Amino acid sequence: MILAKALVKEYTLGGVIVRALDDVSIEIRDGEMVAITGSSGSGKSTLMNILGCLDRPDSGSYELAGEDVAKLSTDRLAEIRNIRIGFVFQSFNLLPRMSALENVELPLLYQGDRQARAKAKAALETVGLFDRMHHEPNQLSGGQRQRVAVARAIVTNPAIILADEPTGNLDSKTGKEILALFEDLNAKGHTIIVVTHDPGVASRCKRQIHLRDGHVVNEPLGAAANPVTEEKG
Amino acid sequence: MLFWTIVKVAFKSLAANKLRSFLAMLGIIIGVGAVISMMAIGSGAQAQVLARFSAMGTNLLVIRPGQRGSGGVMSGTQLNLKLDDADAMLKEAEGIGAVAPVVSGSSQVKYLSRNTRTNVLGSSTTYFTIRTFEIDKGRTFTEAEVDRHARVAVIGPVTATNLFGEDDAVGEIIKVKGINFQVIGVMKSKGDQGYFNPDDQVIVPYTTAMKQLFGLDYLREIDIQAADEEKLADVQESVKQLLRKRHRLQADTPDDFSIQNQAELLEARSSATKTFGILLGSVGAISLLVGGIGIMNIMLVTVTERTREIGVRKAIGAKNRHILLQFLIEAMIMSAVGGVIGVGVGVGAAHVVGDVMALQEVVETFSVILALTFSVGVGIFFGFYPACRASHLDPIEALRYE
Ligand SMILES: Nc1ncnc2c1ncn2[C@@H]1O[C@H](COP(=O)(O)OP(=O)(O)O)[C@@H](O)[C@H]1O
Ligand SMILES: [Mg+2]
Predict the structure, then answer these.
(1) CA separation, residue B19 to residues B15, B292, B297, B347 (Å)
(2) Which residues of A touch B313 (CB under 8 A)?
(3) Which residue in chain B has the smallest CA separation from A91?
């Protein structure tokens, strides 16, 4: 359960204050599949980073599974990112010189999980890359890399998967495959939040949150029960 | 295990930037190599000296004319040690086993057309036992020969080879300062001692040497063998008092001679070794410091280059201490690898230098462990700041880094 109220995030660039998020309130329930859409610079990534506990808002409150994130230490935030959240990035962000298997294992190693290897293999199996587990990222295609990234995101069995433009660097066919993967994961109960400016991708999510200049334009608090459909453009 | 993954990745990234890693490690390699090789040479030299001293026996006292200043430097007159002093010792001092008066000088020595410049030493029959010279061929001279100023010579094996090549020297006539001497014996080899070679000398009766060769009435040294090794200090004191009395020294006048025993010689040697060690230590410390700075520099570059990776690691749940540990381990591995290479280089260099200096280098396990510990320590120390910087990076900024 994600509950964000009146989030504000500002950046100062060359003396000019940019309000990347301006009074954003959203509520996302467990098991939802949500698209966050909006044009470039509308604040999608900023919101995503706050929801993913990578960044803190300047004001407003954020509760994740009943915990007030603002009060948590950096170490506790790292733990939350490790256990509750899986990230998928536009540019894959796999670590070089480590095999697919080692990349997928890594989040578990930070927990000290003794079954890391077995779980990592299972995750690679889920994304259909079991036979490529010993390849290093530079030996894999873009689509395969993103699958490894998805495997890394799900290996700790997190409640929430956050994907920032996950198909942005892929051709439309592989993009659709990755999206299908997210749909499967959502069917298994993971909350999926996908940032995208691609209406095709957004339309495959049951709910969309549209941002413009740091504001949510169609998503009042509590609208989740009665989702507004499709606002493109 | 996280640790092994970190170690593996560290080795892979070292291997991926071979030249850079090598240059970063160079300071450590040179530092460790220098310390290891010089320590091996030092230990080898010390072992050689020790072996030599113990071969000579620990009941030897050497009396030389002149005052002994600091560091064993001689000063004062060199002409006041007389044959009478040596005789008196045998008669009057306590606990003396044997006495050998010694005169010496450098001379041209000839056999037929061959000649060599060498040390000619005059002494008594006891000299050979006191100084533990053994005879390889022939014999030493007798008391009778000493008494009648016989022109007989016992020569060292190197001198024998220089003058006679492979031929038998015993019975042949050599010319020392134009005077004929009969070679009656050749000594066994003792090995070069660096500052002088006991295998290259001609030993003749001191009577002959003083009257006919050098025309001297004073001695270069008197060698004394104590009857009982345990009482060496007593003998030394007794000899000292006797000589002071004979030289009519006032109570407040310093000795006009010096008495050295083996223990003191060893001490002088080991203090020289200590000085050498301190010098080495500072060379090593400076190299390791420079090496550490090299590693710190390369680690800072690495951290900057891998900013994005650090962001990713944090995003998937790495805590600050995980990042800190990772970069510390990498720095440590780099310095440890440098240390291992340095040990290899040092052992090789010691071998080469040992060959040149004709001594057997001794690589002690202790020095290897010390050098490796130090290089790892340097890695940790100088890797700490870069690792700290890495661990405190903000995840968002790190992820945005291009
Ligand atoms: N670290 C930053 N420093 C300065 N400005 C930033 C920073 N991050 C984001 N911004 C600004 O905040 C706004 C929203 O950015 P972002 O959330 O990345 O948009 P989106 O992901 O929707 O393209 C943009 O105007 C961007 O320039
Ligand atoms: Mg963005």
Answers:
(1) 9, 17, 15, 23
(2) 95, 106
(3) B399
